[in-house]
Amino acid sequence: MREDTHVRERMIDAAKKEFMHSGYQKASLRTIAQSAGVSTGSVYFFFGSKEELFHAVVDETAAELRSFLIAGAKGEYDGIVSGEENDRAFIECLHAHPEEAVILLEKSDDSPMAGFREEMVALLEKGFMAFFLRAGGDPADAPLIHLLVEQRVHAILMLISRRYDMETTMNYAVLIGAYGDAGFAGMMQQYHQMKKGSAE
After folding, report:
1. Which pLDDT score, from 0 to 100, does residue 164 have?
2. What is the pLDDT of residues 129-165, one digit of tens each?
3. Which stretches in the chain have pLDDT values below 50?
4. pLDDT for residue 200
5. How far apart (Å, rounded) are the C-alpha atoms in residues 93 and 95?
6. Are 160 and 94 in contact (CB under 8 A)?
7. C-alpha to C-alpha distance for 153 and 159, rounded to whole angstroms
8. Helix, strand, or coil here: 101?
9. Computed from CA positions of residues 109, 112, 115, 120, in that sequence, does the dihedral angle turn out positive or negative?
């Protein structure tokens, strides 16, 4: 039984590397098996399919991220949690699972989790929309929020994929947030001027 667990863990580690390198669509079970030192048949025996192996690699991280994002978006929308607190917790979660996060958010095309990035962005938009509305924004401008959140997610993913230590990652994230907030203030000033001009 212990040997089976060890073999299974080797296959999951090998799959993680292959999904990171090739993405879900191009990932090869043969390559995964060779890297794990097992036969392709063994991969099918333990997991049944590439899809099930993919779930074994990412499901725990996906559930953790989803749970955090739902609670964080609600907390920020209700004014219980600040955007900075949410950012910190989000980055800590990503930093704890960097490979799985990159696979989920950038390497999962045609996988069972292909829509995870869009789901994550939609949840982050809820919190950011609350911030936007408190600053006098119009709910009709939701596409703007989508673009801003996508930009922020891309920046955070770049930090995670470069494998900085946690302190460096957090420091850079705080600086990116400060830059975003300063830019947000200027954007809202311009936004209100544009709205005023269109109303006249």
Report:
1. 86
2. 887 888 898 888 999 989 988 888 888 888 888 888 8
3. none
4. 60
5. 5
6. yes
7. 10
8. helix
9. negative
Distance CA 172, CA 169 (A): 5
Instruction: List the Cα angle 54/98/66 in 5-degree steps.
Output: 70
Instruction: Count CB atoms within 10 A of the CB of residue 12.
Output: 16
Residue whose structure tokens are 């703007």: 144
CB 120: neighbour CB atoms within 10 A?
21
Written as six digits, the tokens of 134 are 């408190």
Which residue has tokens 């982050």?
124
pLDDT at residue 199, rounded to an integer: 65
Burial 141-158 (b: 16+ CB within 10 A, else e): eeeebbebbeebbeebbe
Nearest to 161 by CA among 115, 105, 118: 105
User: How far apart, in whole angstroms, are the C-alpha atoms of residue 184 and residue 198?
Assistant: 21
By 3-state DSSP, what share of the chain in percent is helix, strand and coil, each rounded to 5? 85, 0, 15
